[in-house]
Amino acid sequence: MSIRRSALIPRRPRQARVSRRSGLAGALLLVALFALAACGSTSGGASTAGQPAAPTPTAPAGTATAGASGVRYVALGASDAIGVGASDPNRTAYVPIIISRLPKGSVALNLGINGETLHRALADELPQAIAAKPTLITVWLVGNDFKSCVPLQQYGADLDTLLTQLQRQTTAQVFVANAPDFSALPAVQAQAASGSFCGAPGSQASIRGLAQQWNQVINASVAAHHDTLVDLFNSDLASHPGYVASDGFHPSDQGYLALANLFWSAITAQGAAQVA
Hints:
The chain has 276 residues and is α/β, with parallel strands linked by helices. It has one domain (5-269): 3-Layer(aba) Sandwich (Rossmann fold), CATH 3.40.50.1110. The protein is 34% helix and 12% strand. The protein contains nine helices and nine strands. It has helices at residues 23-28, 94-101, 118-124, 126-131, 143-147, 152-169, 186-191, 204-224, 253-269; strands spanning 32-35, 56-57, 72-77, 107-110, 136-140, 173-177, 196-197, 200-201, 228-230. The strands form two sheets. The protein has a seven-stranded mixed β-sheet, with helices on both faces. A two-stranded antiparallel ribbon has the order 7-8. Strand 7 (196-197) and strand 8 (200-201) form a beta hairpin. Helix 2 (94-101) packs across helix 9 (253-269) and helix 6 (152-169) packs parallel to helix 8 (204-224). The longest helix has 21 residues, at 204-224.
């Protein structure tokens, strides 16, 4: 299937963030709404070459309606959600791969914003996610917070706010990915080359320990809200050399496929992509 690029406007990597002055209006320009055609299936959707079938965008955000038996999928995230590091963000990033595997009649809304932190997502992404009345939500919002040294207490409070609002205002099954082993990423190692990282020693062991501290908070919050954890720390997403893009931080095509598979395994285990 072909993609009408006028209907899909991914943010380019050089744009570090949405301007605070532009606010939600700027974020709306980056929303992608897909309606899944006959390529969708509950058992997968990857082509024989290992790449997912491309989703077909249709109406502008907020105007499409899922079929009675379809899944309404919303992705909350940052640059990874829009495919920075992928060779073809419309096809080989993890959100399009997940979309390609959803059953026929489903719709999806990708709210990812390049440079987004969890705190900003509370204003930029959360209201739209709730308004979409989703049945399935994926959340991966930790990389920019960790790399920018956001205080863990603040991050934990914001995560609790996000998951509480999704729990109270939607009926969706929510899947939250935690922090991978950031100490294995070249970009994080370069940031720590001066000898420190976020006020701690810049050794690989110290950074790994920080990631584990973050995951104690993330994992506990996910459990408290009865959501499903997608455990990236105990995967090889960050350590496998073929899974990291040339920028040393984002996933490569192979990494995005591995990430999509981790999400998809959790989604199918919970029956979140089943149709009536």
